[in-house]
Amino acid sequence: MVPRRRRPPPSVFIFPRFLHSSNTRFPHPRAKFPNHHRSSSPHPNPRTAPPRDSVSPFAAEMPPRRLSAKRRRCRATEAAAAEADALISLPPGVLDDILTRVGIRDAVRTSALSRAWRRRWEALSSLDLIFPSLGYDKVPPEALGAVDCILLRFPGSVRRFCANLDNAYAGRIHDWLRVLSRRGIEILDLKFGYGFALPPSVFSCSRLTSLTLSSCVIPLLPLGFVAFPELRRLTLVYVQLQEYGGYQLEEIIETSPLLEYLSLISVLIRGDYVRKWVIRAPNLRHLEACSDYDDDGWILKKLTSLRCAKIAFTVFLVHRNFAKFLSGLVQVTELSVSTGYIPSSAKMPEILCTFHNLKSLNLKVHFYKQHPIMLTLYLLKSAPNLEELKLKIYDEEELEFEANGEFLNALWADGMCANLQVVQMSGIHWLPNEMSFIELILSKARRLHTLSISHSEEIVMSNEDALNELLRYRRASTEAQILFKGKTEDYY
Question: Residue 425 contacts by C-beta under 8 Å, 6 or more apart in sequence?
Answer without folding.
Answer: 391, 393, 434, 438, 451, 452, 453, 454
